[in-house]
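Work package 3, deliverable 3.1, input record:
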Amino acid sequence: MNYTIRPMELGDAPGFNVLRRMPGVFENTLGLPSERVQHSIDGFQRFGPDDHIFVAVLEDGTVIGSAGLQVCTNPRMRHVGTLGMLVHTDFQDQGIGTALMKTVLELADNWLMLMRVELEVFADNQRAIHLYEKFGFEKEALLRMSVVRDGQYRDKYKMARIRVSGEALT
Amino acid sequence: MNYTIRPAGPEDTAGITALRRMPGVFEQAASLPSDLTVESNLRRRHSGGLGIMVRTDCQGQGIGTALLEAVLDLADNWLMLRRVELEVYADNQRAVRLYEKFGFETEGRKREASVKNGAYVDLLVMARLRTP
């Protein structure tokens, strides 16, 4: 299976919307089955210089994954970026998540020189937690009753990866 | 000293800006003035984020307590939120004690999360839950 990782473009919005609504994906992100393509288009058009969003696409343009790094705009937090990602249900467990993480963290470490990358993950999403720990993320906080999932308020972990000054992490 | 707690309006902009720059306040404040912001994400509508600031020369006089009471009354009794969350500088012990007094619990520590006085310092994540 051949796929490419490249920056997201406006034409990816419908494919991105499919992922946001997809069973096997939306439950563990903040998507909803009712989300319209316009929501993804509006989001894309709001992207600015601090938003670094990548998609993984097949040769026919099908979006099979996405990872975003958003640098914090608060002047006292410009050394911090927030990461979020998702992978198409039919393409999970094939190394795409790992490839997306490498892309985003290479940017964070070597071109944006961020000191801290943080993310949130559902507390019972062992597969995702394992991937993040593999890349040096550590659990920092348990956010209780943080997000609705399947009729309940579920806990999330806040995880973060700190860069030790001068040390390359990737 | 007589004071009132009321919703902020455009006429407060200059006063709020003065607070945000004031030595004794600005070091510990990275976010908005006293407010409760309900999350816009539809799967987080039960949760609100809290921030408060008190003028340096008015601290230690119960104003933070009064502001928290007003905001939490709104959260509990009119917005019916299940979760109120906040972040606070880990070394701001006075603020941490005030939040604990109102039932906030520390959920974790964000390492090197903000710049203060030439260093990257930690923030505590605290939250207060309501069950029916």
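The mean pLDDT of chain B is 91.
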